[in-house]
Amino acid sequence: MRILYWIAAIGGPGICFQAYGRLHHTVTSRVAPNKVRVSSRELYSILGFGESTNSSGRGVQYSGNVGNPYGSNIIEVPGAHANQYKYVVRFEGPEQGEAWTIVIWNKIGPDGTMGGWYGKACKIFALEAGQIRYFAFDEDSQGGWAAAPGSPVPVDDNGGYASTWGEFDFGSATNLGWSGFDVSAIAAQNAGLEVQGMKVCEVLTHICSVIGPAASVVYNAYTSAVADIGGIGGKLAPGPVRLAVIIDYDITRG
């Protein structure tokens, strides 16, 4: 029932979202007084975001918007206001047990190099059992999050977050405004650490990416065995994105 409530909240008038599975220029402008971005014929709030940063590079080395000040392209928002933002991720905690720690990072770190997942998280928060929290992402943001029970999130020998990841690319300027996402166990597997369950679904398109505990279930997601294969996960045409993330996912949670 939680997901149905969120769908109604996010949808707004005249839109029906349904929950239920890498990565592909939107003409935008900012209007400072009322903090609203105009994109196509729709309005999206940018209240709370910092200034956008210029993009640079190509391919894997592409650097999009990391916010100025750094990390201000990622903000927590109240559920009642989440529908006002273009790119929103809804995190749902475990059904029971201890709180989980979630870290969210930009692909490009504060030093301008690729490696925001090496302890450079923009957001770190606890997600209690049954708790739901919403985060909004600014245009042309790329990065990921990792989740693990307790605290802190485990890291590999080089200090990189090494639990199950979710990866995102929202409104990529280099890919004509397309977005994408996936779930990945690569970091945890390469480090020989536990693979936690995670399910990420885009509620507008029904596309999901899923990994079960210990990689017992893998659907449209990355493991170390397919690390070199591109195109796994969700590919989304330009427009709003609504990702619903279930932490500590297993098949009994649907």
From TrEMBL:
InterPro entries: Allergen_Asp_f_4. One of its GO terms (cellular component) is extracellular region. Coiled coil: none annotated. It comes from Penicillium daleae. Signal peptide: none annotated. Pfam families: Allergen_Asp_f_4 (PF25312). This is Allergen Asp f 4. It comes from the Eukaryota. GO terms for molecular function: IgE binding.
